[in-house]
Amino acid sequence: MWEYTDKVKEHFLNPRNVGELKDANAVGETGSLSCGDALKLFLKVNENERIIEASFMTFGCASAVASSSALTEIIKGMTLSEAEKITNDDIADFLGGLPKEKMHCSVMGQAALKKAIADYRGIQILEKPGEIVCECFEVTDLEIIDAVKKNNLETTEDVTNYLKAGGGCGNCLERIEEIIESVKVN
Amino acid sequence: MKIIYADNNATTKVADEVIKQMLPYFGEYYGNPSSMHTFGGNVDKKIVQARQGVADLINADPGEIVFTSCGTESDNSAVYAALAANPEKKHIITSNVEHPAINNLCKHLVKTKGYEVTFVPVDKKGMLDMDILYNAMSDNTALITLMWANNETGVIFPIEEIGKKANEKGILFHTDAVQAAGKVPIDVKAAGVDMLSMSGHKIHAPKGIGILYIKNNLKFSPFLIGGHQEKGRRGGTENTVSIIGLGKACEMAKEHLNEMDTRVRNMRDYLENQLLEKIPACSVNGDKDLRLPNTLSIGFDAVEGESILLLLDQEGICASSGSACTSGSLDPSHVLMAMEVPLKSAHGSIRFSLSFYNTQEEMDIIIKTMVSVIQRLRDMSPFWKDGKMV
Ligand SMILES: Cc1ncc(COP(=O)(O)O)c(C=O)c1O
Description:
The complex is a heterodimer. Chain A is 45% helix and 16% strand. The radius of gyration of chain A is 16 Å and the shape is globular. Chain A has helices at 6-13, 62-75, 80-83, 88-94, 103-120, 141-151, 156-163, 173-185, and strands at residues 26-32, 37-45, 51-59, 132-134, 139-140. Chain A has eight helices and five strands. Chain B is of the alpha/beta class. Chain B has two domains: 4-10 and 257-389, Aspartate Aminotransferase, domain 1; 16-252, Aspartate Aminotransferase, domain 2, CATH 3.40.640. Chain B is globular and about 75 Å long. At the A-B interface, helix 1, strand 2, strand 3 and helix 2 of A face helix 9 of B. Pyridoxal-5'-phosphate binds next to helix 3 of chain B.
């Protein structure tokens, strides 16, 4: 059974702001077919750096769609500097919480937003810094360290829930374990 | 809302006739079949009758039938019994598309008991690589355990052929027939199997009752050691109510085999053909010919399975997905991965599994609903544009 809040279900069944925004001046894409979910975020930003329109196209499970829908609702009307502060927790909170296994859906929202803002500012997000730990989902050690610190993650399962890292072939689970340990020690 | 239940490989409705048989034994007739008194003995008579019903479904002798608590217990008992019968042999052959009841057990035996397991791969149609299978058989092989039919795709393995080879080589052969029972004819004698598992809840009996067929004269060590029940092959006071129900369910399954092969197969084929015709970019997972008559696993490009299921759920349609998102793991099911189903459709794979309770009208509703559900999800998918995958 789906342990989704009513708000997640409602946003999945009646997603807001679906579709391509024809006159978008900022686009952020994240995820891929092989990952099992992907989000393309479209923003229309005015001369005062305010987001006046936002829309999305998402491939993924119900919580991925709901997270995308929530994200567009949250950021509409915000300035870019306000939007920059949005985290995956804000998205999850907006929806009344997400099942632990689905936290990566909100992380995807945050990542797409970051990319869209960078796109608007003409900043190339270069190759991800750090070293790839999870080959399946292309997650780096720095990303894992960051997520472990910010969310007080304790187990490899937590890391998988947030970043997907380790959720594919599982070859990197030991390495993730080491990273968690090293964060704890520091 | 009216429920359309198309998830019969997950579990089935307990047949009204089965419930009717069971009810008195919940209440009035609570005797222990092992008791000396007539009150208990009368329950034993019903169990004898049930055992006969089970035996008749698979062409076994009633003495070869052992009742267990579920399909999983049957699978575990069979594997452990085979290993105990051949303590010096340290090798097991299975496939990489088995149900977790076998797959995880085999992995556990590798990890904790030092067994070597050959997981025979399947091809893109879900069919076993017979060369690898035959080449893996050796003097060190204690057991070959292969499913008769796959729960996700319905693909049927050539059990008789494998049985012959296993018998020639003197290797014990177990088959998990949990999904095959009641859907295709099973003849344990012709199949050359030493042990065979079945589960009540897949054939319109209750959950929590299973069957292990153990060939006459096979050396068998019980998994549950206890009383003399089941001729010492499985301790524990019998689940009398469920056994009586299961006996009836097996009788019914036998009567329905022909309908499975005709009416149910036709419904499944209709569903399949209509979906393929009306929805672009979708494909059937698994061999279309060597397949259970009730099962359809079908993948839709550019959409994700859980979303499909939730939208079907809104319309009261019960199906299941081979997609990860429902199970907690992130990759598509191990069965679809083993078949190398392309990720673009593996994530959007849905399994419909029918029973003789389904109707043609229900197929039409499923088809209509699927057309709109897939359209709706593709309209919001970044990988779908102008009627095709991008
Ligand atoms: C092929 C197969 N084997 C074993 C089982 C396990 O049966 P049970 O649920 O009775 O333990 C199932 C059912 O899920 C199955 O499909």
